[in-house]
Structure formats: C-alpha cells, structure tokens
C-alpha cells in the first residue's frame, strides 16, 4: 500500500476495499498524455512567474517526459492505492526526481486538473468524430450521384406513399449527419475552455498566469468562475446528447437497411464482409452490423442518462460523484466512433437492386396524389379531387389494377375532366420531376442538392482543418 500524497490529515491507512472501490485508475489512465501535457504547461507557467526556478522546471519536465514514455512502452505500474492518473504520475515523478516533484502541484488541485484533462481529451475526440461524420457525408453524396436515376417508393407510416429518387432518400441522411457534425462543431467551442488555475474551487493565492497556461495548451479562452470551472460537466452532457442524436440517425438508417435487405423488400444486398450466417440455417444472410448498431443506440442513450442522473442533485462545487463522468463519456466516444467507421466502410459496398426498387415505386397507387393535383389544376377543388381519387383507388383495388392501368372510360366515369394526357403524367419519372420546389425530389433539384452538399462538405472540411491547426 503506497503512502498517499494527501495523508497528512489522517491517522489510519485507507481500508483496502475503499481503495479498490474509490479507484478510478482503470478508467482515467487513458488520460495520461493529457495529464502530462497539462502538467508540463503548468510547470512552464510556474517557472515564468517565478514560483519555481528554471532548473526545477527542467527537472520536472524531463521527468514527465520519461513517465510518458514508460506508460507508452507498457513499463508503468498502476496501483489502486493511488486512486487516479494524477496521483500515479505525481508519485512516479517523486520517485524519479525527488522532492522537486512536490512543487509541481503548487497552485492547482486535482479538481481543476481533471477538468482540464477531460476537456483536452474531449476536444480531440470531438474533432475525430466530426472528421468521421464528414467522411460519412461524402459517402452519401457519392452514392447519391451514382444512383441519380434510380426510383424508390417513398414511405410514410411504413406504407408506400409517393415515388422519390433513391438519391433524394440518401441525401435525407446526409442532412441528418451534417446537423450532427454542426452540433459537434458548436459543442467544441464550449469544450475548448481552460479551467486550470481554478484550484479546488476558489482560485489560488499564487501569482499564476492563467492566460499563459491557456496559450501553452492552445485554449482560446479561460473559465470565468472558479466554482463553475471545477463542477461544470455541461460540456460532457452536451457531447453525449449530440452523440445520442447521432446514434438515433444511425439507428434509423440501420432499420431501413434491415428492412430493405429482407426478402420481402429485396431492395438491397449487404456485403458479405458486413453480414453473418446462421448456425443452423444455411441459407441465412443476416444484417448483423445494422442490427448491432441499432442495438448500441440504447447504450449511448444510457451513457447520457447516467451522467444526467449523477449531476442532477449535486451541490457546488466538486463532489466525488463526478468521478463517474468518464466511464460513460469514454464508452460513448468509442461506441459512436466504431459505428461511424463501420458505416463509412459498409455503405459504398451495398448492392442496389434497381429493378426491385423501381417495380415497387410503380405499384401501390403512389400516383394518387398526382391524379388529385391533375384534377385540381383542371379546376376541381382539391378536397373534391381528393375524394374523387379515393373512389378511383377503391375501384382499382376491387379490380386488382393500378390507376394507370384503368381505361380512360373508367377514369372518366368518376371525373370527366380526366383526358388522355393523364397516362403520361402518372409515370413515376414524371411524378418525380414535377416536384421542382426547393428541397424536392425532382432530378434537377436533387442534382443541385448534390452540388450544394459537396460545397458544404468542403466548407466543413476547411473549418475542421482550421480547428486542428488552432489546437496544435
């Protein structure tokens, strides 16, 4: 059992079960690089303002560098009795450089130290996820260009509604994921705030230079209130909320891929490399990756709810409950990263069954709305046209025909306004290409949307590159 760096107040050694129960090292050891980077910056600041001298700073910085290499090479020993990554590094530094190591913690607390480490971790994780979302967006735009001539039924209530371009359908997901990227961009600004120097909760009496520390760590701003700085986990909640919404979008497309790859739909075939078989049924090809991603959505939701529940009753400022913030955060980052990486690889390899899609788009009375619009343009009030077409659909169902298979006489028995031109108007391609409103499914509008999407991706790429540059 190691001697605690804080045990001057205590007359008994910590119970071993307490050490194991309260240790967070298994979780927060992944923050080692950020903890060391923050300590180096803090050390340089202490030397600059004269709290330690340059020789002491050099000894400490060299020692921190050696510890980082030890961890990276797997030579570092972790011990539950040292609680967290901060205590591990400080204890090892004491072993390496002697009592000079005890000066490193001057003017800071583990409270503002962990707040710094998590913010540094999360700003990197956020940029990585934005990068993946932009790659996913590029995959959707590429598919939209490739399949611009493919028609598919559009659905409401999981019932065939109106024909749309497959590209238009794909670009709906592009919009969803770009909103996710933009939410991560927005959240990054609130993550990118430097809390170090807040100490335990009240600030410090030492003449530190917080702006210098922020500059060394590439933070554009510093926290405004020391109490808030050590107790704030809003930025993690916001991140988990965005991650949860992104998982909703992944789950929605996963559901469609599961449906569309079924024998009943037959719209697509998932690549063999992203499917599995059955242990008993030789014919099966199961959509396991979409199903697993759909299932992992609840896991990320749980991460969000876990942290919200932890925070909801906490008084200011820091409380040990907040140690529980990192497990859900790391889990959400890893889960969302894995899901996005799989989709980026899987999407381009999906086989599209054009014939099945277009056959489905030509059946199921998807042209009924256009027949009503036709009658309205001829002068019939829309509600009357709606009722009339409803009667025509009922007749067609009884006679097992599509609307465009009814004779002109049959159609005119319901509305004399219907003329021969109706058969040209009710083709799926015509139905699609008349929808020229902005954001509609007309081929020309979808081509415009593809071009706009490419430009938006380029702008977001440039913004991401600038954030990477400013952080480094």
List the defining traits of the structure above.
472 residues; mainly alpha; Fumarase C, Chain B, domain 1; Fumarase C, Chain A, domain 2; 3 domains; two-stranded antiparallel ribbon; 19 helices
Descriptive notes:
- The protein is mainly α and 472 residues long.
- The chain folds into three domains: 13-106, Fumarase C, Chain B, domain 1 (Orthogonal Bundle); 111-199 and 223-359, Fumarase/aspartase (Central domain) (Fumarase C, Chain A, domain 2, Up-down Bundle), CATH 1.20.200; 368-425, Fumarase/aspartase (C-terminal domain) (Ribonucleotide Reductase Protein R1, domain 1), CATH 1.10.40.
- Helices cover 61% and strands 4% of the residues.
- The protein starts with 15 loop residues before the first helix and ends with a helix.
- The mean pLDDT is 95.
Can you tell me the CATH class of the largest domain?
Answer: Mainly Alpha
The major beta sheet can be summarized as: 2 strands, antiparallel
- Give the total of beta strands: 6
Name given to the CATH homologous superfamily of the largest domain: Fumarase/aspartase (Central domain)
Portion in helices: 55-70%
CATH fold name of the largest domain: Fumarase C, Chain A, domain 2
| CATH architecture label of the largest domain | Up-down Bundle
